[in-house]
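Recall that a protein's primary structure is simply its ordered list of amino acids. Everything else, from secondary elements to tertiary packing, is in principle encoded there. The following example makes that idea concrete.
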Amino acid sequence: VLQKFASMGIIDAPGLKQEDECDLSEKERREIDVFVKKLEEKNYFEILGVSPEADTEEIKDASIMLIRRFHPDRFFRRKLGPYKRKLEHIVTRLQAISETLANPESRKIYAEQFGAPRKSTHAVRVEYEAVREEKEEKKKEQAVPEKDTAGRPHRKKPGVELIRERIKKARRLFEEAAQKEKNGDISGAILDLQLALAYDPFCREYQEALSRLKELHERKTGSWENFYQEALSLIAQGETEKAEKVLLRCITQKPSSPDPYRDLASLLLEKGKEDKALEIAKIATNEFEDNLELRMMLVSIYERMLQYDRALAEMKKILKFLVKEGRIDGKIVQSFVR
């Protein structure tokens, strides 16, 4: 805790290792700060300094130049202090931007949202009229003719007949669900019953059968412990993508242990998904308010995202909890906060 406060510059701790010493010039610091701010305010094309029509080679060249410019290795054997985290953040973001724009599909989606030039009002109106005319033509093609092939006029089915047809479809789906249950296909039976209730939503027989099958399905799939053990096995095998999905299913079961939340957040951080890891950590700290390990993880995520104010606020909560538990002197905490 003291090391955290010392690194933030809140206290002076001569006995601790000082990590805020920095021998960068004022020009270099200002350049790094300006680019960090640019990452938050500009879109990907403006950050790289290229147009939305730039090809893949231009994108790669621009990103490589910026990564070389702000890579921490460029300042080898120099004390970077708090600017080390900023440089690492810049490099991580530039790599993510390069991957997004190098992929044609993700680049198309991003360009449509942020990089594509705006259309004029006249162009938008012309496009709207063309789409409207196309829809009207499709409606005319799909319209039911007034007479059938024999020349007889079509007769609309009365409401009673439609209701009877819906009830028949629901009954047929219910029978199919019963057959699937006998064959052991519980998921398919649940799906058929849900469709049956869509046709006949007030049938209590269908509702009771659906509730019974859902309970049976939950017992067969197992509790959060089974999901967690499966995720640990996948992580040991190096299949992190599958492990992430299984851990997400695990936390939907409201586990009574903080371990699934912690492992999922760590897995997301390893993949560079800080935003998702932050969401998981917040959920975990709400579920387990007194768990210091989760709260310290939340602090480290805030620091990694350069959100120092929130990291400091979370650190104060930890210190208050330590005072409440009698693990640290309250006077010391007051002097740190002051």
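The longest helix spans residues 159-182. Residues 116-121 have pLDDT under 50 and may be disordered.
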